[in-house]
Specification:
about 700 residues, alpha/beta, seven-stranded antiparallel beta sheet, binds flavin-adenine dinucleotide, binds 2-acetamido-2-deoxy-beta-D-glucopyranose
C-alpha cells in the first residue's frame, strides 16, 4: 500500500508539474528526434523546483486529493501564467538559480528559455515583465534564505543543492527514458519493414538451385509442425510455414526485448520521491514504454494489411504472409495497449484517484482505443472471416477508425501536441490513406465497364470484361448487385484476351463444349494437346468464377451488368530460370495457372483436377501448347505425380499449386519432403492462394 501510495504521489506530481503536462507548444517529430523535453535542463530544473511554491499571487484550489495530507506536495496551489510572469520573488529566485547552474549555457539560449517558459508552456501566454539579464541585475543583495519546497516564496531565495539535484535527476532521467522509448519504437517499425526487404534481396544472389531447394525444404516451405498450413487447425487458425515462423518469432522477440531493456532509475528524484520511489519510477517508465511501442506497432500493422503495400512491391513475400504478420502485430500491439492501460488503472485505483482521473477526456479516449483494439481481435478470427466476410470487413474498418481517433484524442487531451506521440498515428493514417487512394486511382484508370456473364455449369461462370487490361488478380465491384456498393472480391485474371467466339449471343461456345465433352468422357486422366480455336480478337479480361453464396451466386442471374475493375495486383514470380513449369490446379484454381503457363518459355505441364468436364472444356482454348492431364471425378495422386515429375528429369522445375487448401498443403509437404530426402532435386514451390 505504501508503495502504491508513493507511486500515486509521483504521478500526481508528474500530472500537476507544469513542465510535463498541461497545454504546451506543438512539437514536430518525436522526443529525441526533433523534440527535446527539457533543454536547457538547468533552467527547467530551477523552474521545476519552484513550481510547488506559494507565490503572493497564487491561489488555493479545492482540488480533492484524498491521498494527500494537507501540506504534502502542495497540490492545492494554483499559479496563473500572469502571476509567474510578474512575480518578482519568483522571477528573481528563478534567475538567481539559473545564474548559478547554467554557467555553461549561452546567454541567448537562456533568454530564449526565459521568454518562452517562465510563464508556463502554453502557446500564448504573457512574457515575463523583465528579461533574464534585467532580472539578475535587479537582485540587490545575494539571497541567503533557503527555499523550502511548498512553502511561501515571498522574496529572492536560494534553491538548495539537494532540491536542485532531485529535480535535475527526475527530468534528466525521464527524458532519457522517453528517448529510449522512441528509439526502440523506431527500431521496431524500421526492422519490421526492412527485414522482409533485406531477406527478399537474397533472391538476386545466384546460389546453386540445389542448395536453395535444400534450404527451402528445411527452413522455409514446410509448416512449423504437422502437415497443414492453408487448411486451418480446428477451424480456428493457420499454422505458419517455417519461413513465416522465423519472422513471427523475430517480431515477438523484438517486442519482448524492447519492452524489457533500457530502464534505469535514479535517486534522489523529486518526481518519484518517498522511500519506495524507485519502483514507482520504473513502473512508470515500463507503462509508458508499452504505450509508445503499441503506437509504433500500429503503422506497421496497417502497412502489412494493405493490398497497395510498398512491401508487396519490394519483396517476394505474398499478401497472405503479410496478412498473417498483420494479425500477429495486431495481437502484440493490443497486448501492449492493455498492459499500458491496466498498469495505469491499477495505480490510480489503489491510489484512490481513479474516480477523478476516469472523468478526464484523455482517460476515456484511451479506454475507447484499448477497448476497440481488444474487440477487434476476437471478431477477426478465422470462423468469423469465413462465415460473414463482408460484415467482418465493415466492422473491422469502423473499429479501426475508432482506434485511430481514440489514440489521437488520448494524446491531445493529455499532452496536446507537445511530445509528438501522435506522429505514430499520423503515420498509420498516411499509410492507410495511400492504400485507399491507390485503390481509387486503379479504379479510376479503368472506369465503368460492362461485365458479360456466361454460365458454364452449376458451379462455374465466366465473366468477360472488354477493353480492360490487367494481370495477376483484380478486385471486381458490381455496384448494382448489392446495396453495399463498396463490396469487392478478388479474382484471378484467366486471360487478357477474349476469343471472338466467346462473346455472348454466339452459340459456338456451347457446341464446342459438347464436342470436347464427348471425346474425353470416360478417361479420367488424359494427356492431350489443347485443340486449335479461333484466334482472339478482343482485348479484355476473362475470369472464371466458382459460385459461392454471396455476390458470386447473385452474378449467375445477370447477363450483362456494370463492373468496376481494380487492377492489376500481384505480378507473378519470375520463373524463367526454371526450364520446366509444373502446375497443379484444383477446380477454379486453374485461373491463376493459365497466364503463367502461357507466359512460360520452357516445358509446361498441367495437372488439373476438376469436378466437371465442362469447366475443363471451357478453359481448354486458353491452354494451347500445354501438356495437360485432367482428373474429373477422381483424386489425383499428388505424391505420385510429383515423384514422377521431379525425380526423372534433372532440370530445375518450378511447381505452381493453385487449388483448395488441402491440395496446396499436400503439394507443399510432398515437395519439402522430396527436397529434404534427395539432394539432387531442384525445385521451387509457388502457391497461389484463393483465400487469406
Ligand atoms: C488472390 C485471390 C484470387 C482469387 N481468384 C479467384 C478466381 O479466379 N475465381 C474464383 O472463383 N474465386 C477466386 N477467389 C476467391 C473469391 O474471391 C471468393 O470466392 C469470393 O470473394 C467469394 O465471394 P462471395 O460473395 O460469393 O462469398 P461468400 O459465399 O460470402 O463467401 C465464400 C468464401 O469467400 C471468402 N471471401 C468472401 N469475400 C472475400 C474477399 N473479398 N476476399 C477474400 N475472401 C473472400 C469468405 O471468407 C468465404 O470463406 C480468389 C481469391 C483470392 C484471395
Ligand atoms: C515571507 O513569509 C514568511 C512565512 O510565510 C514570513 O515569516 C516572512 O516574514 C515573509 N517575508 C517577507 C519578506 O514578506
Ligand atoms: C471496346 O472498345 C472498342 C473500341 O474502342 C469499342 O468499339 C467497343 O464498343 C468497346 N466495348 C465495350 C464493351 O465497351
Ligand atoms: C499415391 O502414390 C504413392 C506412390 O506412388 C502411393 O504410395 C500411395 O499409396 C498413393 N496414394 C493413393 C491415395 O493412392
Amino acid at each position: 500500500m505504501a508503495r502504491l501510495r508513493s507511486i500515486v504521489l509521483a504521478f500526481v506530481h508528474v500530472l500537476v508539474s507544469s513542465a510535463h503536462v498541461t497545454t504546451g507548444r506543438d512539437g514536430h517529430g518525436l522526443i529525441g528526434y526533433g523534440i527535446s523535453m527539457y533543454n536547457p535542463l538547468c533552467a527547467y530544473t530551477c523552474r521545476d523546483v519552484l513550481s510547488t511554491s506559494m507565490l503572493a499571487c497564487s491561489e488555493h484550489t479545492d482540488m480533492h486529493m484524498p491521498m494527500l495530507k494537507k501540506r504534502e506536495m502542495h497540490m492545492d496551489i494554483e499559479t496563473s501564467p500572469e502571476c509567474y510572469a510578474s512575480d518578482d520573488s519568483f522571477l528573481r529566485t528563478l534567475a538567481y538559480c539559473m545564474s548559478t547552474h547554467c554557467s555553461d549555457v549561452a546567454m541567448w539560449s537562456l533568454e530564449k528559455y526565459w521568454n518562452l517558459n517562465v510563464a508556463g508552456r502554453q502557446p500564448s501566454q504573457p512574457i515575463p515583465k523583465t528579461t533574464y539579464q534585467q532580472t539578475l541585475a535587479n537582485i540587490a543583495t545575494e539571497p541567503s534564505d533557503q527555499l523550502v519546497l511548498g512553502e511561501d516564496l515571498n522574496h529572492t531565495m536560494l534553491v538548495s543543492d539537494d532540491d536542485y539535484q532531485a529535480s535535475y535527476n527526475a527530468q534528466a532521467m525521464f527524458e532519457k527514458m522517453e528517448d529510449n522509448h522512441e528509439k526502440y519504437a523506431i527500431v521496431l517499425i524500421v526492422s519490421g519493414a526492412l527485414i522482409p526487404i533485406a531477406f527478399s534481396l537474397l533472391r538476386f544472389v545466384p546460389f546453386p538451385t540445389a542448395l536453395v531447394t535444400q534450404f527451402n525444404a528445411w527452413f522455409v516451405d514446410p509448416p512449423v509442425f504437422g502437415s497443414r498450413h492453408k487448411t486451418p487447425v480446428a477451424g480456428l487458425f493457420h499454422v505458419p510455414t517455417r519461413g513465416q515462423a522465423f519472422f513471427i518469432f523475430y517480431l515477438v522477440s523484438i517486442n519482448v526485448i524492447l519492452s524489457a531493456v533500457g530502464y534505469q532509475g535514479i535517486q534522489p528524484n523529486s518526481w518519484f520521491a518517498s522511500i519506495l520511489g524507485r519502483d514507482g519510477e520504473i513502473i512508470t517508465y515500463v507503462t509508458n514504454r508499452m504505450g509508445v511501442l503499441s503506437f509504433a506497432n500500429i503503422p506497421l500493422l496497417f502497412l502489412y494489411a494493405g493490398r497497395n503495400n510498398v512491401l508487396l512491391w519490394l519483396t517476394n513475400w505474398s499478401h497472405g504472409t503479410f496478412l498473417l504478420l498483420h494479425r500477429w502485430v495486431a495481437w502484440i500491439a493490443t497486448l501492449q495497449a492493455i498492459l499500458h492501460s491496466a498498469i495505469y488503472l491499477e495505480i490510480y485505483v489503489h491510489g484512490g484517484t481513479h474516480a477523478s482521473e476516469a472523468k478526464l477526456p484523455y482517460w476515456i479516449w484511451g479506454i475507447v482505443a484499448t477497448l476497440c483494439m481488444s474487440i477487434l481481435l476476437p471478431t477477426s478470427i478465422l470462423p468469423v472471416r469465413k462465415n460473414v466476410y463482408e460484415l467482418f470487413l465493415a466492422w473491422h474498418v469502423v473499429l479501426s477508425i475508432f482506434v485511430l481517433v481514440g489514440c489521437i484524442w488520448h494524446i491531445f487531451k493529455r499532452f496536446t501536441r507537445q511530445w509528438g506521440y501522435e506522429t505514430w498515428i499520423y503515420t498509420a493514417i498516411a499509410i492507410w490513406g495511400f492504400e485507399r487512394a491507390m485503390r481509387l486511382a486503379r479504379l479510376a484508370r479503368n472506369g465503368i465497364k460492362t461485365a458479360q456473364v456466361t454460365i458454364i455449369d452449376e458451379d462455374y461462370i465466366r465473366v468477360n470484361i472488354e477493353n480492360v487490361s490487367g494481370s495477376g488478380h483484380a478486385f471486381l465491384y458490381f455496384p448494382t448487385l448489392t446495396w453495399r456498393v463498396w463490396e469487392n472480391h478478388p479474382f484471378s485474371v484467366a486471360s487478357t484476351v477474349i476469343p471472338a467466339g466467346e462473346l455472348p449471343g454466339t452459340p459456338q461456345y456451347d457446341a464446342d463444349v459438347e464436342k470436347l465433352g464427348a471425346s474425353s468422357d470416360g478417361s479420367d486422366s488424359d494427356s492431350h494437346q489443347a485443340r486449335q480455336y479461333p484466334s482472339p480478337t478482343k482485348v479484355g479480361l476473362t475470369f472464371l468464377v466458382r459460385c459461392k453464396a454471396g455476390v458470386t451466386a447473385q452474378l449467375r442471374t445477370h447477363e450483362r451488368l456494370p463492373v468496376l475493375v481494380e487492377s492489376a495486383y500481384g505480378p507473378h514470380a519470375d520463373l524463367s530460370d526454371y526450364s520446366r513449369l509444373i502446375c497443379i490446379a484444383g477446380g477454379v484454381g486453374i485461373t491463376a495457372c493459365i497466364p503463367i503457363l502461357r507466359a512460360h518459355p520452357g516445358m509446361r505441364k498441367l495437372f488439373w483436377g476438376a469436378r466437371s468436364q465442362k469447366v475443363i472444356d471451357a478453359m481448354t482454348p486458353s491452354l494451347r501448347g500445354v501438356e495437360m492431364e485432367s482428373y474429373v471425378g477422381k483424386r489425383m495422386n499428388i505424391t505420385e505425380v510429383l515423384h514422377r515429375e521431379l525425380m526423372e528429369g534433372s532440370t530445375p522445375a518450378a511447381v505452381l499449386v493453385s487449388g483448395p487448401s488441402e491440395m496446396a498443403d499436400e503439394v507443399r509437404c510432398v515437395i519439402s519432403e522430396l527436397g529434404r530426402q534427395n539432394k539432387g532435386v531442384r525445385v521451387k514451390l509457388i502457391e497461389e492462394a484463393f483465400s487469406w
